[in-house]
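> tool_call: predict_assembly(chains=two)
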Amino acid sequence: MANRLRSIEGMLFLFTLLLIAVLSLTANNFFTLQNFFDLLNQNAVKIIFALGLLVVLVIGGIDISFAVAASVVQYATVVILMKYLDGGGWLSGMLIAMLIGTMLGMLNALLIYGFRVVSIIITIATFNLFFGLLIFLTNNGRSIYRLPDWLVERLVFIRIDDTTMLYLPVAVMLGVALITTYLLKFTGFGRQLYGYGANPEGARRAGVSGWKIHLFAYGWLGLCAGIAGMMQVTIAQEVVPKALYGWEFDVLVAVVLGGATLGGGRGSVSGTILGVLFLALLKNAMILLHFSPYAFNAISGAVILFAIMATQWQTFVRKRQGGLV
Amino acid sequence: MNALLKNTSLLMLCFLAATVALFGLIAPQTLSAGAMRSIAFQLPQLGILTLAMFIPVISGGLNLAVTYIANIGGLLAAALLTKVFADAGWEVGIIALLAALAVGAIIGALIGLMVAWFDAHPILVTLGAMILLKGVMEWVTRGGGISGMPEYIQFIGNGTLLGVPIVFLIFLATCAVVWFVMHYTRLGFAIYMIGSNPNAAEFSGIAVKRAFAWMYALSGALAALAGFVMLAQNNSMRIDAGKDYLLITLLACFLSGADPFGGFGKVMPLVIALFSLQLISSGMNILGANQFLTTALWGAFLVLVMVIRYLAHHTKQD
């Protein structure tokens, strides 16, 4: 099992290196620190989402409502800050965003576990509920351009020179990655999450609480969605209710590519980050090699199907040999 | 009362009566002859897509790719009609329809084979297929679409036969086919058995892998048929056509008693439930409800249905 896990991420790592090699050879200024920093700046928000979704996939669930939930968080947080807190500050702003995000995530958990509904059905429902209400209540999706000053200030986290900089979202992404790694790998609760994902009934008999697992996993995704939503505002410098619509599938493709499955019990932080970066590099490569940009989604769809087959290869081999499961 | 709960067809008829009564009270114009006629024209798209969703749901899976299989099927038919065999006779219409059905069935069969051979979760496989097909649509159409169908295709979409919309007749025929397949053939029996317990089905000699391929092929062909109907009615096929139907197809399945974990659910209550949902949809339209508010209400409705199902199930056991 451990070997197989390592080999899926190992394969992805090799493919990523291969892509980097191809890109370095075909494009002159690809292999530069500046380009690497840009890659991180552009994908930090997506990685934060992906780390949240990873935990849900680890427990054997799925969620497609998190991206529109992040839009709800953005809008609600900015409205609350501007109306009641005179613009607020980093502390109040992030706390409100994280609170709303966590609550939206836990609402999913409540419906999924409380009423024993398959997670995809509930999150398709809440996706439509969140999105429909958000657009309806914002007068058909009117954007907000007047934001608190602290939110539109671009904070630099590492500065090499005027063009080579890492911004705040990358620092936040690293923080979320470290905490997620610690939770999943180095705490007993993290092992419970994997155990529950691999075998819910077995974990339940061993004393693991299904409520705790669900509230934590979906709450964690909501929290990450809240953080990612605010980080996206610092980049976009505006709140557009439809801006994150459709991100759920990009993020899902990346996490599945990183080795997580819907069966639960599998997936890692390193695989998830690699999954996001691999897809970003692939997009880069397609542009540099003059592929039609319209083809990108088709290719990422093909990539996810291949990733599913690669992850389940052992099962296929066993079935070919006449085994049952 | 207990007998009523067990007979889902009767339950769905009561629900339909309640819907009719509700709209009769708040907006009588939704029940006019003209409104009924427009329902007969609008129901087939949603209805055929829901049948495409229903078959895998009974096996304990889902087919989240139905709307984009419909897109691809419709697009292929549109391309054949307007680009490849432009200005040809009505025989091309049949070729276009068969080509759409074939591509839907092939996509479906590939999905089914992947689910069967790799034990990959149908949700994930069909989500992946959905992303791939959506991408292919974007790639081929560059975000646009194909429009301007020959007149006989538009006649299929908007014409009537003895006063009944042709698309409605197509819908009824499709319902009859699915009803027959699900309740009176070996494939239908296999689908119900797989939904109840895939391992037991395999051990009792059912060719599970073949059944998976056939059921998703059937689902894909039905989705493509829905795409053809969309093409005939809208006189065009563009990306994302009918994507809002996905939620309502799930709603119809689970409202009419299909079990999300598979094995249970019948065609007749499903068809009756579809009439109620289309009536609600048309009614909201006539009342001038905001499109996004309607979307939110469908979401809330699906949550409500799942909660009621849980509560009904658990109070029965006590």
